Structures are given as C-alpha cells and as structure tokens.
Amino acid sequence: MSVTLSSLFTNFNTYVGDSSTDRISDAERYQYLTEATIWLMESLGNEHQDVTYDFDYYDTVNYYDVTGVLPDLTEAVDLRAEAGKNYNPFTYKSGKELSVEIANKAMEPSYSIERHNKDAFLVVNYQPVKRAAQISSFDSLTADGGTWEADTSTSDATSLALDTIEYKEGSASFKFNVDVSQSGNNRATIQNTTLTSRDFSDYEDLAAWFFWVYIPDETYFSSVTLFWGSDTSNYWSATATTDYNNNAWVEGWNRVKVVWSAATATGTPDSSAVDYIRVDYNYTGSQTDDNNFRLDDLKLIIPEQLTFYYTTWNVGANSSGTGLTAFTASTDVPFFSAQYDGYRYAVAHKAASLAFYNLRLKEDGASEEVEAIKAFNRQKKMFPISKVQETRSFKPVGVNFRRRRYGQFRGSIRD
Predict the structure, then answer these.
(1) 62 with 116, same domain?
(2) Is 121 in the same domain as 138?
C-alpha cells in the first residue's frame, strides 16, 4: 500500500468531522499535514529519514561542495566505502579537527560537514587503495624531463619562472605574466613538448586530472584547457569553466578538474606514451596585461565511490520523485509511504489537532493531540531506534572486578 496526501486527507477529514472547505481550506489542510509530518520527523529519532548519496572520492581532494546536490541535508549519519573495501569505519569529526588532521596527513578515515557562506561541504579524509599519481609538482622547469616553457609565439604568456613563496604543493609553483598584445589569441599557454614519456594506459577514461591555477584577477578569466598526448598533433584536450566544485573562478588559487572520459581526442594519441602536456589560461578580449599567474600540483586520480548516509529534511516527494519541503498536491507522497504506512494515523491526528487549535477549539485540539501521540507510540514500538548504543562499562571476560576485603583471598600476602 502506498500513502499519498489524498489518503491523509481522508483520515484528516474523518478526525475533524468535516470534508468541506467551509472552515478549513485545502491550502490549510496541506499546511497542517506538512507541519504534522515535520512533527513526526522530529519525534522519531531513528533512521526512517536517512537517505544515501553516492559520490566519487578523489585521493587528496578533501572538500566536496554538496550545496546543490544535497539541498535537503540535515545532518550526517555515516560514510562508507564500497562493499569489500570498507575495511575501517569512518569517524565523524568536527570540521576544525578534521582540517588539522588533513594538514598533518593523518591516516584515520574520517569525515565532517562544514557550512559557511550559505554552502555545505562534505569533508573527507581517506586514503584509498588507488592513490593519486603525482605528475608534476612544478618545483623545477626541468624536473619532469624535457623543459616547461611559456608559449611566447601563439599565446600571451611571458616570463615563466619558479615561485618559492606562493605554492600549493612541494616547494614551488610556476609563475608567469600575461602580455595581451603578444599574440592576440586571448590565452596564455604553459607547456612541455619534450616530457619524459609516461605510460598512463591504466588511467585512460577512468581518471581525472587535478591541478591548481592562480588567477590574479578573475574579472575577464573564462576557462582552463588541458592538453595531453603523444605530441602536438596527437592529444586529448578538455576545458574547465569552473573549479572542481563547479564554483565560479575566484581571485587567487582555484583547483581544476578535467575528466579523461569527457576529453576530445585529436589525431591518434597513445596513452602508453604521453610526452606532451599543455595548459591554456583562457580569457576574453577585455583582458589587460597582468602579472603573477601561477600553476601547481598536477595529479592524475582514479576515483573511488563512497556512500554518504544523511538525514533529510524533505517531508516527502511529488509524484515524479522530486523531494518536497511542503505538500501542495493530492498526489504528493510523504516520506514514510510504502514502508511505514501506519504513521498516517499519527500525522492525520496531529494535523487535526493543529486545525482545531487554529479554530480556537482547544479541547478538541488537545484530544486529537493525545490521539496523535498514542498512534505515534504504537508505531515507534514496532520500529525501535536502530543506532548502536554506546557501551558504558567494560569488563573483560573471565575477570571479576567485585571487591573483597583484605585477607579473603586464598594464598594472600598475609598468609
């Protein structure tokens, strides 16, 4: 059986003894049933409102903006690795504590929820079996084989050098300036066309590239394009128009993600012999000369899927399955439908109580509230709280901690 708002209307009308809209409009009915469902959610204290979210975790990438994908996030419940890989449980910690552990490269699998600037972030500290591959830390212009250089012919990049003061990983970053009159192509390019050949065949179409770009002024900045392949005629390329969390560019450091499977192949690149990497900083024609663009920490990472368990504040969903914070249609479905249909009586009684109180019928309101609590308690006994209870005392098997008076032990010191 599946409960809808139409079903709840039937119960509600029975309890108030009125199916007309003379005293109680349909809009008010939806409001009372929404508030009564929220009352039920607040009273349960168990896992009836828990839902899951599967996401790709990338090693060394710790902060995931879930504002858009989890607008109904109330609180965290658990985080788990895939079946067969969940060797150690994740520990929930405060955002402050976790940020310190991430900085210190702590090993314990842990997670947190941070909220700031009206955004919510799932913070994860975890070292999966598939570790990130460090492609370049940009600590030297020649450390990766070949030579990194600015394209001063077909791009606006100039003065490529090391910056040992401002960087994200290792001991330095690449720093360069932009002269927009140099090429007129509205881009600045840093590249290595003689890179020591690398075999990335195990990563092809599975991994994503992550790297940091520093933008001194984001006003006219548009995108970043990454090229990688066998040479300047045979390569893959993909463009990022936001940072890895799909947020707009900001002045300063921005972390970029480029997914291999979404890249476009030009020519016939060979993933087992990659010796060409190029990064384009793209901007509009309004860009002016500027200094101190930076590039750092290029990694190639195969993701691992993690499942985040959390409590939702959605009271239910519409007929299409979209979550709702308030009911507005008779076809809407409350969160307990098809699993815990018995809660309909508690919700309808509570809604009737709210209606009577609003009509200044306090005795009828009080009576319906009692019925709501009775109906709730009946159901709650059937679905007890399923959270693991904390152990309050510990006693090893075979050891008796009961105290005995001095001398009661056989073979005591006094004997």
Answers:
(1) yes
(2) no
Counting Cβ atoms within 10 Å, is residue 67 exposed (0-12), middle (13-18) or buried (19+)?
Answer: middle
Position 326 in a domain: yes
Q: Tens digits of per-residue pLDDT, 84-110?
A: 766 789 999 999 999 999 999 998 999
Half-sphere exposure of 134 (CA within 13 A, CB side): 11
Query: Is 348 inside any structural domain?
Result: yes
Q: Is residue 390 part of a domain?
A: no
Strand partners, 225: 239, 280
Phi-psi region of 117 (alpha: psi -120 to 50; beta: other; left: phi over 0): left
Separation of alpha carbons 248 and 228, rounded Å: 24
Who contacts 40 (Cβ-Cβ below 8 Å, separation ≥6)? 336, 343, 346, 347, 350, 376
Q: What is the pLDDT of residue 300?
A: 98
For the chain, what is the largest distance between any 2 Cα atoms, rounded to a whole number of angstroms? 101
Q: Say how many C-beta atoms besides its own lie within 10 A of residue 364's C-beta.
A: 18
The confidence score (pLDDT) of residue 143 equals 85
- Give the number of domains in the chain: 3
353 and 373 share a domain?
yes
CATH of the domain at 149: 2.60.120.430
Q: Are residue 97 and residue 152 in the same domain, yes or no?
A: no
Give the integer Cα–Cα distance in Å for 120 and 70.
Answer: 9
Counting beta carbons within 10 angstroms of the beta carbon of residue 414, is it exposed (0 to 12), middle (13 to 18) or buried (19 or more)? exposed
What is the per-residue pLDDT across 2-29, written as a single tens digit (0 to 9) for each?
899 999 999 999 999 999 999 999 999 9
Distance CA 93, CA 38 (A): 27
Decide which of 310, 334, 357 is a domain's last residue: 310
Residue 413 forms part of a structural domain? no
By the 8 A CB rule, do 66 and 53 touch? yes
Q: Give the residue numbers spanning the domain of 105.
A: 50-129+305-310
Q: Look up residue 164 and give its two tokens.
A: 């040992």
CA 334 to chain CA centroid, nearest Å = 25
